[in-house]
Amino acid sequence: MKKLMNLILGAALFASFMGCEQKQEQKQTAQTPVELGKYLVTIGGCNDCHTPWKMGPNGPEPDQTRMLSGHPESAPYPIWTPADAQRNAIMLAAGTNTAWAGPWGVSFTANLTSDTSTGIGEWTVEDFIRTLRSGKHQGQPNGRDILPPMPWFNYGKMSDNDLKAVWAYLRSIPPVKNQVPFPVPPGTPVSMAN
């Protein structure tokens, strides 16, 4: 009788687990593109670099008032020199965590908000997908390279539907006017870079 009870309990637990699994699958398929995009942006760590960081009560934290707006246009940024390589530094980061300097020069995170003059508001979803698949700004064959540490080659492996969902989410967030600086080529004198 004890074996029969254990078998019944085991079957009930299994059925309960399967029911939860089905509910989770149904919930995921019921997501809107914006909800899925928000999820993908969150797990993809986009805010880690594209949202400027500020000092909060518990240390550095993303400044959500400038969510996904890229490197602040007037914020300082680091300069990498060959001496940094001798100190075993592969790159240096700005205090905002939105600019990096390395042997490639200085790269800045883009403004991913829907602002039409400083963000990606005038881009099409096709531009966005081509950008992440090609590593070229606005997905143009002759566009400038997307520089480190942006892992476009990983995000570019996402499905079209996932990238369209990310696009839908980015279009849903408030626009932030912020003109991100252009990349600084390697060897630019410090006086010209800052």
What are its keywords?
single chain, 194 residues, mainly alpha, three-stranded antiparallel β-sheet, two-stranded antiparallel sheet
Brief overview:
The protein is mainly α and 194 residues long. The protein has helices at residues 2-29, 33-43, 46-50, 82-86, 125-134, 152-155, 160-172, 190-193; strands at 53-56, 59-62, 92-93, 99-102, 105-108. The chain starts with a helix and ends with a helix.
Mean pLDDT: 86
Structure annotation, total helices: 8
State the shape: globular
Distance between the termini: 80 Å
Tell me the layout of helices and strands.
Blueprint: H1 2-29, H2 33-43, H3 46-50, E1 53-56, E2 59-62, H4 82-86, E3 92-93, E4 99-102, E5 105-108, H5 125-134, H6 152-155, H7 160-172, H8 190-193
Antiparallel strand pairs: 1-2, 3-4, 4-5
Helix pairs in contact: 2-7
